[in-house]
Amino acid sequence: MSIFSKVTQAVVQFVPDRDRDQLSEEHRIVGKPIDRLDGPQKVTGAASFTADFPLEALVYASLAFSTVAKGKIRKIDASEAEKSSGVLSVITHKNAPKMKDPPLFSPSSGTDAAASTANVVNTDEIYWNGQAIAVVIADTLDGAEHAASLIKIEYDEEPAALSFEAAKSQAETPKNIMGEDTEVERGDTEKVLAQAKYKVDHVYSTPRFNHNAIELHATTAAWNGDQLTVYDTSQFVRGVADSLAKMFSLKKENVRVLAPFVGGGFGGKGSMWGHVQLCVLAAKVVGKPVKLVLTREGVFRTVGGRTPSEQRVALAADETGKLTALIHTGTTASSFANDFAEQFSFPARHLYATESLYLTQKLVRLNTTPNTFMRAPGESIGTFALESAMDELAYELGIDPVELRLRNDPDQDPAKHTEFSSRHFKEAYRLGAEKFGWQNRPAQPRSMRDGKWLVGQGVGTAFYPAYRFPAAARVRLNADGTAVIQSSAQEMGMGTATVQTQHAAERLGLPLEKIRFEYGDTNLPQAPVAGGSNQTVSIALAVQQACEKLHRELLKSAKQDQNSPLSGSHFDEVRACDGGLFRRDKPETGETYVEILSRLKQDFVEAESETGPPLETMKYSMGSYGAQFCEIRVNEQTGETRVSRWVGSFDTGRILNPKTAVSQFRGGIIMGIGMALTEETFFDERTGRIVNPSLAEYHLPVNADIPKIEAYFLDIPDPHTPLGAHGIGEIGITGCAAAVANAIYHATGKRIRELPITLDKLL
Ligand code: MOS
């Protein structure tokens, strides 16, 4: 990722061409469909989530939210709330102890994690409707919630920027997008477009979305002198700890954040939202541990979601379908308390060969909850526009939509002109098309029908970059032949704990049950945010390096010991297997870890490693690719749309665990179907209020909405990544909304360029 391109002096620990991971070919434990190791704990209720820790003398906090979108708090009357039964304290900007400003999330800092610059309860300033403006702490949750409802607030309201449409005229071009140049330009696209015989040029729009993880955002904070312990449902425990240390002027080592289990995040827990600092502040004020669990409405009010977008895609092609111009531009919205231009133009940088290319993005600011990462931020909405446009162009040309993509598969990265580290785009398309039975699809729209149901089939390209971030890990071998792997990593249901245990077992040559992976605790070596689908490879590399360090140390010790069968063996001459180190040329010659540690008279040996920046992503264009195929049925009379079949086919490097991988792909596709058909955050532009802050009115797909989903993968290792793997958490949602829109066009002849495609748009 280019945010690291300015790093010149860092320790280079991973050399892209030299360090092909030998384990990318091993298939003893890695690559097996192992059941989730934490599955039994979760289904029996034994797993403790953030809100489950029964701390001594725990008290409860509840928030009051602003009801205006912009202005200042003129008067706040908490007297009734304070008198309410069981209330310990009501914290407002009038009496709140001062905190330092929240350090806004920045990938290059590695640890700054605040989702918003709004220093809530340290300011009378209102940035959005729903902003937290007071915290009530009481000895019961009901008592806190009731008292919060008694707070009386008056505002000096100011005119707010609430209309995306109206704000567009003041849109600005951000200096960069996630560290990459905002603008990419090659050739004169407008001229090529004007002269082209085959072209499409349309505007696509996507609404606001909210994440809605099952586990509500929750924090429990306990102070002990200047030591702070926080349980937080987070995708980034290290970032939360360091950000709290900054805000409360504490030494980093005095803040410990734990997240042993996280009940879903999807990016909504990737940064630190205001309730976290408020819970910590509340615990400080009352001198007792405080638990703050947001209500579902509280999540909608205070935790941001996906930005709305308006995107133009214009494509031109010659009669063979080769692209001659590709334009992808548009606008997204951020707030006045953060700065995040969602990278919708990223897919077009890497997907198709084109003679001329123009990509840029604009950003407007609105008085809304700060927008944030939501599963494949950028790529999910960007592929809706781009892949809808590719479908439209296919009809213009009279070329099959799959064939059109295959004809534009580039030899090198279209924007950066670098080599691909690993790209099997065509193979992914061919596999998906075959599994779906695409060759039987009639080209003509409105040509398939089942009674009153119009049937259509559509396809869209999936794309997500392959990122790696610096990470640290420790490996410890115990005298009894067991091992512990440690990294502060987070497991929010993806299978992290399972896959990292598989990796360590393979790397150390131990059976799975001898390995314990410890994570979700900032007392452990530093892991990055579980975001950008980076975590698996980032931690895998740190574990790989720690294991290598340990093995080298053990061999060094063997060298000095005439009795060791490994005496004189070089690192490259041994391999870890059968519970120890054995010579590659004489597999019976070697020592188990139990024998080595007994010879060394040690209870345990350990090594730690911290990886450097991802030089490989600067050298190569690194991404994952896929094709989403779906069949939908649209009721001709009512416009009701049902998805009846889905096949996803993915090129995501080597698959480490087919079972957890398919689950990730399937989850992404389900979220993509929600994005295409039912999900939308309704924002009242008169008040800035979200008017459907509940799961009753924000329709996430449920079982009845989802058909059997088939997910296939190529399983071809990327020679330039640890284990040959890519992260797979986000690619599943990409391309889905376009596949649905394209299938709807095929079924009905109606082209809908605005998500979600609800039935009113089809009548
Ligand atoms: Mo992903 S939205 O970067 O967790």
Short description:
This protein is α+β, with helices and mostly antiparallel strands and 763 residues long. The chain has 18 helices and 32 strands.
Describe the model:
The protein is of the alpha+beta class and 763 residues long. It folds into three domains: 50-159 and 214-264 and 269-302, Aldehyde Oxidoreductase, domain 3, CATH 3.90.1170; 184-208 and 306-467 and 618-761, Aldehyde Oxidoreductase, domain 4, CATH 3.30.365; 469-613, Aldehyde Oxidoreductase, domain 4 (2-Layer Sandwich), CATH 3.30.365. Helix content is 25%, strand content 24%. It contains 18 helices and 32 strands. The strands form eight sheets. A seven-stranded mixed β-sheet has the order 3-5-1-14-11-12-13, with helices on both faces. Strands 9, 10, 15, 16, 17 and 18 form a six-stranded mixed β-sheet that branches. Helix 10 runs parallel beside helix 18 (736-748), helix 13 runs parallel beside helix 14 (535-559) and helix 17 (658-677) crosses helix 18. The radius of gyration is 27 Å and the shape is globular. The model is unreliable at 1-13 (pLDDT under 50). Dioxothiomolybdenum(VI) ion is lined by residues 267, 270, 373-375, 377, 531-532, 730.
User: What is the number of independent domains?
Assistant: 3
Indicate the percent of residues in helices. Answer: 10-25%
Give the strand content.
15-25%
Give the strand order, joined by hyphens, for the main sheet: 3-5-1-14-11-12-13
SSE layout:
Elements: H1 39-43, E1 59-65, E2 71-77, H2 79-83, E3 87-91, E4 125-126, E5 132-138, H3 141-149, E6 152-157, H4 164-167, E7 176-177, E8 180-181, E9 184-186, H5 189-195, E10 198-206, E11 218-224, E12 227-232, H6 237-247, E13 255-258, H7 274-286, E14 290-293, H8 296-302, E15 309-317, E16 323-335, H9 346-350, E17 356-359, E18 362-366, H10 379-397, H11 401-407, H12 425-436, E19 448-450, E20 453-465, E21 472-478, E22 483-486, H13 496-508, E23 515-518, H14 535-559, E24 574-577, E25 580-583, E26 590-592, H15 593-600, E27 604-610, H16 615-619, E28 623-635, E29 641-651, H17 658-677, E30 683-684, E31 689-690, E32 709-713, H18 736-748
Parallel strand pairs: 1-14, 12-13, 16-17, 16-18, 22-23, 29-32
Antiparallel strand pairs: 1-5, 2-4, 2-6, 3-5, 7-8, 9-17, 10-15, 11-12, 11-14, 15-16, 19-20, 20-28, 21-22, 21-27, 24-25, 25-26, 28-29, 30-31
Helix pairs in contact: 10-18, 13-14, 17-18
The structure holds dioxothiomolybdenum(VI) ion.
Residues 267, 270, 373-375, 377, 531-532, 730 line the site of dioxothiomolybdenum(VI) ion.
